[in-house]
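Data availability excerpt. The first of two example chains:
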Amino acid sequence: MSQRRLGAFVSVGSAACGFAMALILASLLLSVSTTSSVRAAQTVTVNIGDNYFLPQTTTINVGDTVVFYNSGGTTHTATSPGNFDSMDIMPGASYNFTFTTSGEFSYYCTYHPDMTGTIIVQQPAPEFPGFLALATVGLAVFLGLALERALRLQGLK
């Protein structure tokens, strides 16, 4: 094979190797973006007893819902001025509120101002993409190295 033809063949081989690596990386990025799990919203219950909220402090993520359940014998409220107001929660009834912003929300019972509580709402931590993404990375590296080696053994790179 002439030097000129060999050079063209090597260029094509290098281009093919680059294209294959680009395809592998694209599939890797697609795999990571589609396999990372999205945390489902949670529902947390705050028990309202006579003269207490239990737990008194609750930490949740943005998008989670808090159910204020009145297990006491009298009417109560869960009131956070400017944020949420359950109005009257009769014994055995509940009030749900979904938190859409992060922050610290103090609340109280309007009938019993000494009954207080706090909801701490945080941004959810990003979740690790998991085993499938790691396996894809490993496969991409393996295929890239195998292709590189095959080209070297054939004297094309």
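And the second chain:
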Amino acid sequence: MSLYANINKRKKAGTSRSKKDSTISDKSYADMKAGFPKAKKGAKTAAWTRKEGKNPTGGLNKKGRDSYKRENPGSKLKAPVTGKAKKGSKDAKRRKSFCARMGGMKGPMKDSKGKPTRKALALRKWKCRVNKKK
């Protein structure tokens, strides 16, 4: 629970602590009163969360995968299996696993404008057969 949520929850319940009995550090309290510092101007988020790290045909592009690996050391993010995979090979098993996981996810295949969602694009990219519900 966040600092704000906890304080507001206790206020609402009528169990707020006085400043003297507070368990919040002086620094946290001062930051909260001053308004938490804003992100530096020009500071960008990781490429995998922005358009430039996403492949327009679905999934992440090389830049997106590299930025994800930098932010999450030890992750083993690989490119999608898009080519023909031999039956029973590692790639075929990986595709089958991805299609089962992603195909079972909730969410529409098209957005309100009729464009395919990121989910639909990823399933198409991995060449997953999706049962269309009517």
